Design the sequence.
């Protein structure tokens, strides 16, 4: 039985969509807010996720962005009333595979779910997720990297933080955003922990760690990655 994570705060929509998918022989796990969605995503396997954008606690864009730091394979559909082009673009940039606006017809949602799952099942292998900058290379699927120290393996947290920074290339990412996306919304380490991770990245990847060109500090705010 294929499993769906349905994240929707409107009870009527959540229960109606859940019932319809169950009638099509899917197993549906629901969450009414972003925190519960992240907890379910971290602890369980799903064949597809359907996520609303306007959620309590943690919004859908943040949910998907955090999931994508460690899970690049599970297909995700945004199901939302936000129908502006900029919203759709933002949703796809965050890592969603599809975007369906409300009001919607269930048959269309079902068709999109089936197509995404079929596409994923035809390509079950985890493909290398390579990122190259300067003389450095990182495989976000295996955490293997090449830098100043030759070949080495990143920790999961290092890979997640590096993925966040490279995905937002050229943008200033605050320490608060880093803590929420990489460490979650319930456990916050010291911001000094982030600084230590950045120092490690400079040792790994910068030609001159004391004069960084890739991992830049923005005083009083956070960090910016430049390729």
Sequence:
């Amino acid at each position: 039985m294929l499993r769906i994570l349905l994240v929707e705060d409107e009870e009527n929509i959540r229960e109606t969509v859940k019932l319809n998918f169950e009638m099509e022989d899917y197993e549906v796990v629901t969450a009414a807010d972003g925190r519960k969605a992240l907890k379910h995503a971290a602890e369980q396997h799903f064949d597809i996720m359907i996520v609303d954008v306007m959620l309590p606690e943690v919004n859908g864009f943040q949910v998907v962005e955090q999931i994508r730091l460690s899970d690049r394979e599970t297909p995700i559909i945004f199901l939302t009333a936000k129908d502006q082009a900029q919203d759709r673009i933002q949703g796809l940039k965050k890592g969603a595979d599809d975007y369906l606006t409300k009001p919607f017809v269930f048959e269309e949602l079902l068709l999109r779910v089936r197509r995404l799952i079929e596409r994923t099942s035809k390509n079950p292998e985890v493909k290398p997720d390579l990122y190259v900058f300067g003389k450095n290379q990182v495989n976000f699927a295996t955490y293997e990297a090449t830098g100043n120290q030759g070949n080495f393996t990143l920790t999961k947290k290092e890979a997640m933080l590096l993925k966040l920074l490279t995905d937002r290339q050229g943008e200033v990412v605050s320490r608060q955003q880093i803590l929420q996306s990489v460490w979650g919304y319930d456990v916050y380490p010291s911001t000094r922990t982030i600084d230590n991770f950045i120092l490690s990245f400079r040792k790994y990847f910068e030609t001159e760690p004391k004069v960084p060109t890739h991992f830049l500090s923005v005083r009083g705010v956070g960090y910016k990655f430049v390729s």
User: Anything to note?
Assistant: Residues 3-122 form a domain with the Rossmann fold fold (CATH 3.40.50.2300). The chain has a mean pLDDT of 91. The chain has two domains: 3-122, 130-225.
